[in-house]
Amino acid sequence: MEAIDVLLTRRSVVVANQIGPGPDDAALEKILRAATRVPDHGKLAPWRIQILRDQGQAALGDLLARLFVAQYPQANDKQIAFERQRPQRAPLLLVVATRLRHDHKIPVMEQMLSGGAVCMSLLIAAQALGYCGQWLTEWPAYRPEVARFLGHDPETDKIIGFLYLGSRAEAPEDRPRPDLAEIVSEWSGPVGADTVERV
Ligand SMILES: Cc1cc2nc3c(=O)[nH]c(=O)nc-3n(C[C@H](O)[C@H](O)[C@H](O)COP(=O)(O)O)c2cc1C
Fold this sequence. Notes:
The protein is an alpha+beta fold. The protein contains eight helices and five strands; from the N terminus they run αβαβααβαβαβαα.
């Protein structure tokens, strides 16, 4: 498939519709190489990617179940089991975090955006190789306990994506996309004679 067709047909596959196999080692390496070629102002590589397979996914699930019970002591067994299962909903889980350099001249926002590009490229590369993925954050991305558990410093390392990768159980239906006319416009200069004075 042409690269443009991969982009024009890109769709996330929700974790509920993901099955095995996940990317094998050779495919995963290609996905990671593709995803770390993103634009990166200052060549900071301000992102980290962790690969969680069965054991890592289970360990993270145990933590999520514990955190959930601590927050909701009345939680029932089904809810707790769901939280334990959360990181295990796809064959492979990639955790993407930005490792931000607050002391650097490159604005933190640009470092974050570069991390977003990593996540997006992971999805595209996975789809290009015949796999599927979904980029989720959900509540665990925003809990410092989760970042610490994964070995991150929550001050500088922000979890920006849990990338669930697998194979699709069925082709997802397309969903409506934004009308280009609403979000794209031509701009060829300020309108009105006094606009420059008003800036
Ligand atoms: C940063 C980010 C975080 C997201 N987190 C969630 C999430 O927590 N839960 C969710 O249902 N979708 C989340 N999404 C949306 C899905 O990744 C996906 O875009 C959505 O299922 C629509 O599918 P599509 O990518 O084919 O348009 C997130 C998207 C982004 C960019």
